[in-house]
Amino acid sequence: MFSINNKLGLKPGQLAGALAIMLAALLWSIDGLFIRPQFYVLPAELVVFLEHLLGFIVLSPFIFIFWPKIKSLSRKSWLALGWISLFGGMIGTIFITKAFFAAMDGNVSFATVVILQKLQPIFALLLARVILKERLDKKFYGWAAVAIVASYFIAFAKTGLDLSSIDWSKSGALFAFIAAFAFGSSTVFGKRVANHLDYKAVAALRFGLTSILVFILVALNGSLMSLDLVSSRQWELLALIVLTSGAGAMFVYYFGLRRVPASAATILELFWPFSALVLDYVFNHNYLNLAQLLALVILLLAFYKISVLGRLKKMSFFSRVIRGQGKGKAIGWPTANLDKVDLDMPHGIYAVKVKLAGRDYLGLLHFGFKDIFKKEVSLEVFIKDFSGDIYGANLEIEVLEKIREVKSFANSDLLVEAIKSDLEVLKRFA
After folding, report:
1. Which of 52, 206, 247, 353 is the most buried (most CB within 10 A)?
2. Residue 137: what pLDDT?
């Protein structure tokens, strides 16, 4: 197992996180193959409304727990929450449900729907380039094109590759593509909100806002009138979705995501299509033909390349030094607190280059929540080989590399040891 960890870039202690991501992926496969098809006789919009309403009821306590921080969210964060509720919550979930319902009609296999939905990272990274201005390796776009072409063969190699013969209004493949785009765009804006609010509160707000949006939809299109058609068995399955593939899987997934690198998480998530393929073959006797299998191999290679090329590239920003609480100075490692905390990058400890008064210094950047309650984000930098009062100074900071995740330490001695270990990484940039 340790050799597998090494291949994925994991440390031995991150095994639990890797297994958690794989468990979440398995829950999503089971949902799509066995649970969601049980609602085939109901409007997809009604199913999505009920699962989000029940999910919000379960998650609503986090609204009260994090209410002080929620009240202080910026307009930009609220717009991002609206986007992930509309696209990730409503549009994405409705269309992935429609895709699975279309699979019930036999125009596409369940496993194919799952595989196509895995185009989500491609859309996420492309939109991150357009919306968040993240820089991507030029090779990324070539591999993204390869993945899209391979996905096309997976979707239509069995039924024929003639686009003119496809009934797009009933195409499970098209619905899966739309869901992938919706979930991918939601990921981009979700990263922004997660930088300023604990993911549990983000999940609660997303489920709540999505419930409102889908309620308006089902009220307008008449789907709400089908509420009396929901059987007692389907109510039980809705509760099961909330506890497993819905809110339950979300918590398991984020537990894992906090413990493994994002690039490794992308590879681990591929357990979703793999498990779907196996389950679909064993229980539904569906299989991929030779052309689809070859396309799947190419798609998996493209996913791997994309996960590597999509890692955070060097970025820079300007920020002003503000007064802090002096906690770093108290333990012998003074840091400069910065006023800019609205950064579109993951929380963590970073190796950085700091430009100050015409000189370049290496340093360590902390970007993340201040304490275990995760109610406030802080941005502070330790500048190596520098001393002096720079309050009010404007710094230009270039992010070189993410070193590790933000951690909480039981005492200052453990924190100092971690800082010393982080400083060893700076030697590579000297």
Report:
1. 52
2. 64
Distances (CA, A) of 52 to 93, 112, 211, 249, 395: 10, 25, 6, 14, 44
With CA atoms as reference, report the closest residue to 216 among 86, 327, 126: 86
Distance between CA atoms of 287 and 333, rounded to whole angstroms?
A: 59
Residue 361 · residue 386 · CB < 8 Å:
yes
Half-sphere exposure of 352 (CA within 13 A, CB side): 25
pLDDT of 5: 44
- The encoded tokens of residue 298 equal 């190419």
SS3 of 364, please? strand
What pLDDT, on a 0 to 100 scale, did the predictor assign at position 18? 73
Angle, alpha carbons 303-102-49 (nearest 5°): 90
| Residue (of 426, 423, 6, 51) closest to 230 by Cα position | 51
**Separation in Å, CA 406 to CA 66, 111, 192, 297, 419:** 20, 37, 17, 36, 12
Task: State the Cα angle at 336 between 425 and 371, rounded to 5°.
Answer: 80
Q: Using the 8-state DSSP alphabet, how is residue 224 labeled?
A: G
Q: Does domain 315-429 have CATH number 2.40.30.30?
A: yes
Tokens describing residue 342: 């609205």
Q: What pLDDT is recorded for position 210?
A: 93
Report how far residue 358's alpha carbon sits from residue 335's, in angstroms, rounded to the nearest whole number.
20
Q: Give the start-to-end residue ranges of the domains of the chain.
A: 10-309, 315-429
Tokens coding 421: 């270990």
pLDDT at 12: 47
The pTM (predicted TM-score) of the whole model is 0.67
Among 120, 241, 127, smallest CA distance to 178 is for 120
Mean pLDDT by 10 residues, the chain (430 residues): 44 66 83 85 92 92 88 82 89 88 73 68 67 63 75 64 56 81 76 70 89 95 92 93 84 68 58 71 75 79 66 70 74 79 74 87 85 68 83 86 80 82 84
Distance CA 75, CA 62 (A): 21
Phi first, then psi, for residue 395 (nearest 5°) are: -110, 145
d(CA 359, CA 31): 56
